Amino acid sequence: MRYAFGKIALVFYLLLLMLPIYWLIVTSLQTNAQILGSFDLFPPDPTLANFTRILTDRTWYEGYINSLTYVGLNVVISLSVALPAAYAFSRYKFIGDKHMFFWLLSNRMAPAAVFLLPFFNLYSTVGLFDTHIAVALAHCLFTVPLAVWILEGFMSGVPKEIDETAYIDGYSFPRFFVFIFMPLIKAGIGVTAFFCFMFSWVELLLARTLTSVNAKPIAVTMTRTVGAAGIDWGTLAAAGVLTIVPGAIVIWFVRNYIAKGFALGRV
Amino acid sequence: MTIMALKRVTRLVGEELHLDDVSLNLQSGQLYVLLGQTSAGKTSLLRVMAGLDRPSEGQVMLGGVDVTQKSVRQRNVAMVYQQFVNYPSFTVYDNIASPLRLRGFRRAEVDRRVKETAELLHIEALLGRLPAELSGGQQQRLAIARALVKEADLLLLDEPLVNLDYKLREELRTELKALFARRDAIVVYATTEPMEALIMGGNVVVMGEGRALQAGPTLEVYHRPGSIRVATTFSDPAMNMIDVSVRDGQARTKTGLALPLRGSLANLGPGRYRLGVRANHLFLQRRREADIELEGEVDLAEISGSETFVHLRHNNLDWVIQEEGVHPLQRGSAVTFYLDPEKLYVFGDTGALELAPATTPLDHAA
Questions:
Q1: pLDDT digits over B192-243, tens only?
Q2: What does the pLDDT look like over A159-203, one tens digit per residue?
Q3: CB contact, 8 Å: A6 with chain B?
Q4: Which of B79, B83, B87 sits opposite A168 (nearest CB)?
Q5: What CATH number does the domain containing A71 carry?
Q6: Same domain? B256 vs B157
Q7: Which of B199, B226, B253 marks a domain boundary?
Q8: Structural domain tally of chain B?
């Protein structure tokens, strides 16, 4: 009985969560006239015109390319910086290691807005303003600490004796790291990439402020739908659906490890 | 022949002394058993020998060359850990082959050696599997195979059989002994169990609190432990100890027990001594005329297979008797036991050995 009640409650909760997404999809399949004209649970005459417009109009799809570029850059930079750092934290003792480890995470406690002005000033001075790498680097401030924390947890789960055996067998450090160590923590690397991706993908404030034309993210492009004739609801909804897709794909790949990632690898 | 020499090796970690002035000479083609309790410095010593850790003081010489600062990658060593350490993402074949490939052996040669070594350890049927698909015993066999395949000058094993069940341990121990006998390497085998040291034979280095207490051929050390520390470490169950003072040909304890001193013990000068007797030299039945009869109260009778360990109290002293056969004795019951005075070890006031019982060929069976 209690089991059944729990099930019903969960299904209800799930419906509640899915409702806005469902509504987004329904809206994206209709014309503006249909959207504003009637209230339909199912689109009476579904059309893909909104999607076609986004995928064929350069000013639209460029937003996606820009976003994916700086997000991809961010994931690559975060991982390549965090992997060695996490290895050092998990394997070696050095002066201030614990404090530094905590300080890394405390970086995330500051709101992004705090760094907005310094970043803007700095990037304008060195000529990085409105480039993909500028946004990727700015996002690294938040993703690198997170990546180090997650990876350190996964790495500490690998016994140190494996490292030593590899050295005894004659492996050089890079070779050991790439061929033996990384396959052992590949779940951790996947989860870390996911977290970096998600942060960078949904972050808007820094991305918007540090770009103007060339590296404009999709979320900013979406504000274009407000025009003199009102809001272009159908296109806006279609763009929204398309922003969910990359995240959903990434989640699919790491779905079995996400819980471990939320525990920062410590299980 | 290669000789590895440790010269006054000391290792400090923070304030803790892990190795304290250890000097040893190890020869190739020989087996050395490092015997000591937990945290006696066995693992620390192995790690210094391997080059995984550097000594704070002292030198490690290999074949006359100082290798103290040489990194582990440049030394030709192999190590087997207590945990089963293999490369989880490699198959059994690739695990064994990896040290060979790193040395640039030809493919055919790698293949030949991998198969040969796998056969020695009876894992030739498992070459295509991943380590996670093996049982504990097979995983450790794999780790040993990987250590053997590279034919290192120095083969180190840190309690390799501890995590295996009893049956597997006995089986693998016998195999290992035969494998080591054919090797030209310096084999160092760490263990906490005196019985294992006796079975492996060869030489023994008894460790305690970071020191090498005594080194020598295993049976010699067993029969003539140089000090109380060595005798306690190299005796399972622990050697029974009694404080006595010797006067007029008799050894008296504080509690009033008087033991007549006969045979080689008759020449003991007056003074204070500690007498030691191994649990297997105490008996529940009289064996000889000269045996000394003692009374005690049973604390616990542990029956392990074909043997019984009787823990008992005698004159406020704890004793352990190891007796063959099953003897289900009730707690609190009175028991008469017998001590063979010819089997007494005599230690001086400082703990150094004064007299050891003469060894008979029969003891070698132990």
A1: 999 999 999 899 999 999 999 999 999 999 989 999 989 988 988 888 888 8
A2: 999 999 999 998 999 999 999 999 999 889 988 999 999 999 999
A3: no
A4: B79
A5: 1.10.3720.10
A6: no
A7: B226
A8: 2
Minimal CA separation from B78 to chain A, in Å: 6
Strands (DSSP E) along B36-127, which ranges? 57-62, 65-66, 77-80
Q: Does B255 lie in the same domain as B156?
A: no
Which positions in chain B touch A161 (Cβ < 8 Å)? 81, 83, 85
| In a shared domain, residues B176 and B315 | no
pLDDT digits (tens, 9 = 90+) for B276-318: 888 888 888 888 877 888 888 888 888 887 888 889 888 777 8
pLDDT in tens, B116-141: 999 988 899 999 999 999 998 899 99
Domain co-membership, B360 together with B258: yes
Q: Please check whether residue A123 is in contact with residue A188, taking contact to mean a CB–CB distance below 8 angstroms.
A: no
For residue B79, list chain A residues with Cβ-Cβ distance below 8 A. 164-165, 168
What count of other Cβ atoms lies within 10 Å of the Cβ of residue A249? 10
Q: Count each helix (H run) and each strand (E run) in chain A, helices first.
A: 15, 2
In terms of residue numbers, what domain contains A121?
A: 64-225+243-262
Query: What are the pLDDT digits (tens) for A11-39?
Result: 999 999 999 999 999 999 998 888 888 88
B317-345 pLDDT, tens digit per residue, is 788 888 888 888 888 888 888 888 788 88
Looking at the domain assignment, is residue B71 inside a domain? yes
Q: At a CB cut-off of 8 Å and minimum separation 6, what does B77 contact?
A: A168, B49, B50, B51, B152, B153, B154, B155, B156
ipTM rounded to 2 decimals = 0.79
CA-based nearest residue in chain A for residue B155: A168
What is the DSSP code string of B229-293?
HHHHHT-SSPPEEEEEEEETTEEE-TTS-EEE--GGGGGPPSEEEEEEE-GGGEESS--STTPEE
- Residues of A within 8 A of B102 (CB-CB) are 169-171
Q: Does A180 touch chain B (CB under 8 A)?
A: yes
Does B98 lie at the interface with A, CB-CB under 8 angstroms? yes
- A185 at the B interface (CB within 8 A)? no
Q: Please enumerate in sequence order all residues whose Cβ is within 8 A of that of A111, keeping only pairs 6 or more positions apart, or say none.
A: none
Answer yes or no: is A149 within a domain. Answer: yes
B188–chain A Cβ distance below 8 A for any pair: no
DSSP state of A179: I
Which of A92, A162, A163, A169 is best to mutate for the B interface (most B CBs within 10 A)?
A169
B182: containing domain? 3-226
Residue with tokens 């008894």: B206
Query: By CA distance, what is A160's nearest residue in B?
Result: B85
| Cross-chain residue pair A169–B146, CB shorter than 8 Å | yes
**A164 CB within 8 Å of a chain B CB:** yes
> What's the CATH number where B330 sits?
2.40.50.140
Cβ neighbours of A172 in B, within 8 Å: 73
Residue B233 counted as domain residue: no
For chain A, the average pLDDT equals 89
- Picking from A168, A171, A180, the nearest residue to B77 by CB comes out as A168
Both structure tokens of B124: 């030739």
